[in-house]
# Entry
Amino acid sequence: MERGYRIRSKPNYETLMWREKASAQVVVAKGAGGLAVLQLFQQMYPTQPVTVFYVRGNGSDTDHSATLARVVGDAIKLFDSETDALYAFYRSLPDFRMGTRFYVSGTESFMWSLCKLAKLFDIQESEIMMELSNSLARPVYCVHCKGTTPDVTTNIATCSKCSRKLFVRDHFSRHLGAYMGLMVDAENPGEVPEIEEIYP
Amino acid sequence: MGCLAFKKETFRDDYTYRNSPEAIHRFPFPFPEDKYMYSVNIEPHVSIKPGSVFEFPFDIDEHYVAECQDKAITLAKDPGRYAVLPHMMDAQWDVLELIMESLSRDYPDQFKLTKDGNRWTWHNLPLGIQDTFTFGDRSTMAMDPFEYIGRQTQGDFVLLDQREGTLFADAGCITSQADWSLAFDVGMSWHQWHAPVPRATEIGVMDRALKFMMNLQLGSPVRRLNWTMTINPRLDTSPENYPQWGTDRNTVTPENAGDKIHLRVELQTLFRLPRSNGIVFSIRCYLISLNELATYPRWAKRFHRILRELHPDLIEYKGLTKFHQIAVDWLARFDDGAALEIGTQPE
# Structure
């Protein structure tokens, strides 16, 4: 990897800020991403209708649910699993009207899973603000078996579907919400370079 | 073209693909000078020289039937090589019309198109296909119009949608690509799609090319040549099947280099489409082994200089690292060091 190389196929994530021109505000966050939501609510409590979907942190992922519940009040929906939260979000999508703005914070895997759902309802990327929370972990798409492995922290990942060892390329697909993974030892079977954590 | 004989040959397994002397002579050799670096190098796609690959908008050659068969095998094994986003239907009909009209006009002995209002009958003699359908009505075809015509034309096709001040690769029929993935890249904007190309962004090539393409006019198509190298005459050098072809790079020796190493030239053409205001980007692949290339020593000499001086980033990006030196050494015997005039001609 070149030093300071910018991945042009990947968006630059932002710091979440309310957009005042909105008909409604929808916030979705997971674990440590809750901090970005607390910062949002420090800016102001929006005047538009607001809904917050929050996945409680567990294990090493920080949990902000207690503070968030106090700050956000009745508008918060709490979940124990990412799947449940994404499903609830998906079920609510038909109710969101034109002009709704979306705010997402969490790992890249989480944020792009959500974008994929939103896209099913023709919600544009420009209507979704994203802030990466405290991990650089990457979702990796296996170009060979087409499976996606979430939260990869190493230069080389084992595909969760076909078990090939994948080199993680600096090329990102928004519609798949993942980086490209290419079999690392295709030319020299068994020759896998040292695996290092580079996306902590 | 009336006497065109289509070869029986393969682009995989036993690799029986070969060029006839005529095919070698018309090969689109891409190096007018001794040095190569990315450039926009776009020129009007106008007809030049009868018999050359630039004579007609879409070139049909002796490899047509075998290449369409190889395409069918690739699509059967991985249907993801064809992808289209839903808003591209107008562009699909545009490209079907463009190709059918071109082929039936330029190769009347091989392709016939008859129109009775919107009822069109397409007759592809080399592939033994005859179909009647209603132009503009998807339900009258067995598959998407873009897939239908993509399967019957040599090369790869990308349909670009123009919006938000850029171009989006919103459809493709891609079976002979030099290591890029349609399933991964579909829907990407111009700059996202080209993100992995080293040095090109830094020297501004991608911005200039985009500006040029956005102004492309109906009826004024353009072309450029691009190149890389492939071991064995394999069309499907996709990242999807990298585990199948990657090891071929280990098999090159000084003894078999002339046979195994191929120069792979892409004739890239761009046409504005009338209804959708989209663009069809055609990437037509020509393969020639070093042995075949060296039947014209002028080409071997020039190619030797190009490879010897190639920027290390490009050697890496084009995947030549393992056999680059072998190719340079193999070609060196043709290079006496004397100056070569500018131009791509074989003699």
Observations:
- Chain B is about 30% helix and 20% strand.
- The CA atoms of residues 308 and 325 of chain B lie 8 Å apart.
- The mean pLDDT of chain B is 94.
